[in-house]
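Why does residue order matter? Because the sequence determines the fold. Keep that principle in mind as you read this record.
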Amino acid sequence: MIRAYTFLMRPTARQEQALGEMLRDHCSLYNGALQERRDAYRHASKTTVRYGQQSAQLKEIRAFDPERQGRWSFSSQQATLRRLDKAFAAFFRRIKAGDKPGCPRFRGIGRFDTVDFPRDGDGCRWDSTAHDPVTRVRLQGVGHVKVHQHRPVVGRVKTISVKREGRRWYVILTADQEQPEPLPATGSVVGIDLGIANFLAGSNGEFVPNPRHGRKAAAKLEAAQQALSRCKRGSKRRRKTVEKVATLHRRVRCQRLDHAHKTALGLVREHDLIAHEDLKIRNMGKAPEPKPDPDQPGGFLPNGAAAKAGLNRAISDAGWGVFLAILNAKAECAGREVMAVDPRNTSRRCPECGHTAKENRPTQETFHCVSCGHSAHADTVGALNVLRAGLARREAQPA
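Structure:
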């Protein structure tokens, strides 16, 4: 199995300058390749330039500009061109599917933050076994950079990436390791219902409160963004304010990840089967369609966009997608089973008699069956129905 590790780098002032130049030159390569593709499509009878053609030109580009392009790893430059090729592949796929195309755009140096090295030992080297107690990573054109390795890397390192976040630099490793020993069975199964008032409700009656990290930091973030809008572009004050805004966003993201990791770890340790709703989170976060007013040309009817915007912010702040991805990864390592079930009518179906009706849920938190009179918390009822659907799906699967 493949596992990723992220470590903080501690470069010297000269190494930090070299890392910035590496990002700048790879960004220039990306934009140049994008310009070539656009020109070929517009002026050469809609000709499509492929990755193989652009990769074959790298040798000439490096010889023509040895100061900016020739000093970096050939493989990392190929990875940058491959990234552009994937962007165009996704662009054409969206066109065929009828979605919003979103053509690949030119990247400013502030929006190009990652350089990939496809193989350890080719332009980069992860060195954690040397006699020096300090872990280092060697990067072509930069040197041996110190790394704060807070946990051991298990397995063989396959790829290495260098990423910039604000003024911090990180190295991201992917390691190929053997499947770990599964955790001992507990005999417990649980269904979870993700929500806004509570982050999740379990079929066993337990609740995990929603920390709302983004909402708590909204006031500070709003003040920092307003200060940023008043700064003159290119000024030293603007650069400091940009770093402050980035620091606030990074803090919220780290808090959200920490909460997701701890919650998922608790579920994986306690239960053998975890069933959850198969939510289409991207569709849930979309803005409502405008409603033209038939009586007033050019006018629109109220469509609840303001209320929906608040709900969309709450969904994004909860981070359901990140949590489910972490839960699946931890369950795979621990030998647990995670089951996604159809979410339709899970909060409207009575767990006692099976009666399904909209009237069974008079309020957001209350469930009261109009057929048998069963009453419970609506989220707990939804989690129970999710668990039953998960168990039924597991039994229906072929052995």
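The longest strand covers residues 156-165.
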